[in-house]
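As described in the Methods, two query proteins were run sequentially through the folding procedure within a single session, without resetting any intermediate state between them. The first query and its resulting C-alpha cells are shown here.
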Amino acid sequence: MVRYIDGAIREAIGKGRALMIKIPGARTLGIHFASLANFANTEIGVIIDALDLLLVDSDYSDPKNLKSKFSKFKKLSGVLSSIENVVIAAMSRKTDDDDFVNKLVHEICKEINYPLPPPVASCLSQKYYHIYSDYGLICIPLLESEFVLHIPDLYHELGHPLIERDNPKIEAFKNNLAYFMLEVRKHFEDEIKRREINKLGISEKDPIYTYKDSWLEKWAEEFFCDLFATYTLGPAYLWSNLHMCVEMSWEVYKTPTQVITTHPASDARMRCCLLALEILGFKQEATDIREKWDEFVKIIGQKRTDDYSIAFPEKILKRAAEYCYIGIQQIGCQLATSSTNDKVNKLLNQAWKQFWIDPQNFINWERQAVIDFKRTL
C-alpha cells in the first residue's frame, strides 16, 4: 500500500494541475467570477504544495506513520474534490443567467449596505439556495433568474457570512449572536436544573439536551439569517418562506428528540420572523402573513406537540429578534421600511402584493416584470 498511496498522491497532484487549466481566462470569465478564480488558483496551489510535501516527507516512509499519510491524503483529496465540484464547476458552466444573478446580488448588497464584498452567484444549485461562505459563492437553482417569488432567499444566504467570516466590520453582529446564545444556554440549563430539582426523571437521553445543543450548534445561526433577511427586505421574505414550505417542507413543527438538526422547525422560524416584521412596523403585513400561514398549516393537518413548545419557547424567539435587530443596526445595514424604494426591494415586495391581488394571472405580470427589471439592472 506504500506504492499505492504514493501513486494516488501523484495522480491527485496531476488532477490539481488539470483543474488549474480548467479555470477560464479573463475573456471568458467576465468581471463577476474573478474573485472566485483567484481563490481557486490560490487554494489549488496550496493543496498541490501540501501533496508534494506529503509525497517526499521521509517521516511518512515509516510504516507506523502510514495511517497518518492516508488520513492527510484523504483530507486534501476531499478539499480538492469540493473545489472541483463547486468552484470550478460554477466557473466552467457560467452562462448569461449567472451574469444577471451576479448583478442582482451586487445590487442587493448595495441597497442594504452589506458590510462584506458581495459573494459570487451561480445558477448551479441542485439543493435550493445555499452559500459556501469559505468560497464566497452563492448557488441558486437553474431557473431562478426567470422568476422572483423565491429570490428573497438570497437575503437569508447573505446572513451566513456575517456569522461565519472573521472580519472586524461584522464583529458587532456576531457579538449579538453570542449574547443571544448565552441566554439560550442559560434558559435550557435552568430548565434542566428545574427538572432535576422536581425529580422529573431526567436522563442523558432527555430531548431537552438535544434542543439545547441544536440551538447552540446551528439553530441560532439559522434564526439570525432569517431575521437578517426579514429586517433588510421586509414582508417578501416571509411570503417566500411560506411559498418554500408549501413546495418542500410540510413538517412545520418537526422537532428532534435524540439527534441534533441543522434547521429549526419551519413554524418557529415563521413565528420569529413575524416578531421581527412587527418590530419594523409592518403590523398589518404580519397579520396577513400569519393568517395565511395558519391556514396553510390547517390545510396540511399539522399540529403542535409538547416537544415543539419546549424546544421553541416564545421568549427565546423574541430575544433572537431583539438581538439581531440591534446587531444589524450596529454593522450599518439598512433596515426595510414601508417607504423603502430601492430597486430590488421594491420588485420583490411588489411581486408578492401582485401575487395576492391576482394569483391566476401573476405569471404574466412576473414575466414582464423580470424583463423590465433586467433592462434597468
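Immediately afterward, the second query was submitted; its sequence and C-alpha cells are:
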Amino acid sequence: MPDQQAVIGLISDCPLQRHIMQAAIEGYGFAVAANSDPARIDKEFLERYMLVQAWVVILADEDLWSEAIDALIELSEAPILFGLGEAPGKHSPEYAKWERRLYSKLVELVGEPETLSEHVETLNDLDSLINRNPQAIPLPHHIRPATASDPVERVVILGASLGGPAAVKGFLDCLPVGLPAAYVYAQHIDQNSANVLVRVLGRHATVKLSEAHHGNSLHNGEVVIMPVDQEVTFDEDGAMFFQEHEWPGPYGPSIDQVMLNVANYYGSKVHAILFSGMGNDGAIAGPLLKAYGSRIWTQTSESCANSSMPDSVADTGCVEFRGTPVQLADKLVKTIELEELSKRRRGIG
C-alpha cells in the first residue's frame, strides 16, 4: 500500500459530474488535487498539478474538447482514465456499480488507498477510544434466552470498513446474553489482523467471536468473522464452505457478497447493519435483501469515523433505521422483543 494518499485530477465539461466524481473519489480515501473544466488544460495548468498521479476524464462532448484532451495526453506523464461513462445520480440503482468501477480502475493505476482498511495498530488502540466498562442491555423478559444449540432464527450481518471496529465493538458490548441471533461480521481489514479483531472486540462482549472455519455453522450468540482472502458460501446444510477464489470486487471481504451468500441460505432471516467505512460496499446487496423482507440499518453519519459506506447504502432508499452503535443495539433488542411477542400471540414458539 502507498505511504500517503494518491493524488487524483478530475476533468469534465459538466460541473455536476465533477462534483459526483470528487465525492466518490474522496470517499474512497484518495486526494483530489485538481477538479477542472477541460477549457483550462494547457502547459501552465499541468505544471501546476504535476503531482497528480492519475487523471479521470468524463466528457459529454469529446469532439468539442479534442484539442484539450490531446494536450493532456501529450503534456501529462500521469495515466489518464477514459471510458468510465457518465456518473449516474447517487440515487440511481446503477450508481454503486459505476462507483465500484471507478475505484477498481484507480486501484489499477495508483494502488489501493492506505486508509481503506483497518490496521493492527488501530485495533489495539480501541480500548482507549471507547468505553472500557460498557453496560449491556438487559434481556427483556419476553425473550426466551437462546443457546448456541437452538435453531438460528435470525442472522445479523455486520458490515464495516474504516472506523468500523470501534463502532462494532460499541454495538456488541451492549448486546444482552441470550439474545436469539447469530452474527456474521464482514470487516475490510488487513489480511493478518483477524485474530486481533477477535481478541479486541471480544474483550467485553457478551457474544462469542471467532474466525470463520470451513464446515462450521452459525450459532446464536456467536459472531463469525469472514476471511479477507477467500469467499465463503453456505452449503445445503448451512455449513460454511470456503471457495478457492477471493471475494469478487475490489474489497476483501466483499460486504455485498457476504450479504448475498448468507441470504442465499437463510433467506428473509437475514438482516444487515452497515457501520462506519469508506466506499459503498453493501449498496448493491442492500436493496436486494430489503426487497425480500430483510431489515437494513446503518450507523448515523455523525457518529461515523467515515460515513461514506453507510451513507451510500442509505442513498439507495433501502434503510429503515439509522443510529449510533448503542442505538442500533437497543433497536435490535427491541425489534427482537416485538417479534417474540408477536410469535407468542400467534401461538408460535
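The mean pLDDT is 89. We note this only descriptively and draw no conclusion about the first query from it.
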